[in-house]
Write the C-alpha cells for this entry.
Amino acid sequence: MKNTALVFLIISALITGGCADEVFYRGGSSWPERRERVMPMSATVQQRVSQAAPDIHFSGNSHAISPAEANLLAKAAPELKQMIQDYPDLMLIIEGYCDDRGSAAQNSKLGLQRADAVRQILIDQGVPFTHLRVESKGNTELLCSTRDKECRQANRRVHFTAVHRVVDPD
C-alpha cells in the first residue's frame, strides 16, 4: 500500500509539474544546459514592453531600488505577465547600466546587481522567472557622455529588451 501511494505521488508530481523543457535563468546563466538563440521581437512588442516597463533609475554606486521605482515595477508586472501569456516565447532581457564613474569591473558587477534587483521584484510580483534574463552593460553603452549630474543619472538605469527565445532541439 505504501509503495502504491509513493508511485501515485511521483506520477502526480510529474503530471502537474511537467518536465524541464525550458531554460531556467539565474544570474544570467542557464540551467540545465540547453542550446538557445534569441532573436529580436517585433517593434510593436518592444514598444509595448517599453510602455509597460520604463527604465528604472538608481542612485550613484547603488543597486537599491527606491520606493517610487518599485512602484513602477509593481504597475508594470501585470502587463508583463499578460505579454508573456500573449507571446509564450517572449524573453525579457533586463539590462543593467552604470554611469562613467568607477572601473569597468565595478560597473559590470553593479550593472548585474541592478538588473538582478529588478528581476527579483518582478518575480515577487508574479512574473515567471523563466522569461527573465539579466545582463550587465556596465558603462559600455551610455545614453549621454557629458560629465554632469543629469547625464550620469540618466545612465544609471535598468532597461528592458524583448527578444524571441528559440530553444534548439538537442
Observations:
- The longest helix spans residues 104-124.
- The beta strands are 24-26, 29-31, 36-40, 56-57, 90-97, 132-138, 157-167.
- The two ends are 39 Å apart (CA to CA).
